[in-house]
Amino acid sequence: MVFAHGFGCDQNMWRFVAPAFEDDFRVILFDHVGAGGSDLSAYDPARYASLEGYAQDLIELCTELGVSDGVFVGHSVSAMIGILAARRAPTLFDTLVLVGPSPRYIDEGDYVGGFTAAQIDELLDFLDSNQMGWSHAMGPMIMGNPDRPELGLELANSMCLADPDIARAFARTTFLSDNRADLAGVSARVLILQCADDMIAPRAVGEYVHRQMPGSILHQLAATGHCPNLSAPAETIAAIRSFV
To answer: Catalytic: 76?
Structure first.
């Protein structure tokens, strides 16, 4: 069972969820290049200019560890990374759990991604000019749960710890990506976990992913915000366990 973290996070974000599955699965946690304890010297701007580079990392990691017919749990942008990996190497995972997935953050035609192009440009410009300010402004907004400010602060601090150059590049790769065409053709079983009041992946996005992935199951969590692995681990565990 492989857990992958989202933008601005590291594997520590799964600390309340992953241990619940250790009795039934071999649990694998890792950091994307540029996050947590990863080897920063491994970063290649050309490789990571698209999510395909991160998907290739995931394939190489799982191949090295002998993963076959595994369960992949991907949060936020890692949901799309997992889909890309599953398309390239379909024998790695027979189950995908997508937590707050978004194949496209920018509204386009009838598609609702949650942001206009101008809003994404503004967010990226803000990050380019002031990573710490961006992190402390966006962390609580992304986390939601304003009644528990410590959660937003944890996410903000995690964002601040990321290598600034890599974080800026990863943000552009993430928020400017368009993986809508990659949703079809995945052979694995798929569970989509959708949070309420999620500014990053609003309900319309979860419903879109569900429609584009025939046979997938869309589960609406009571949890609010974008990080149920931190804000509602018990509910997240229960939803995953009922599927796997």
So the answer is: yes
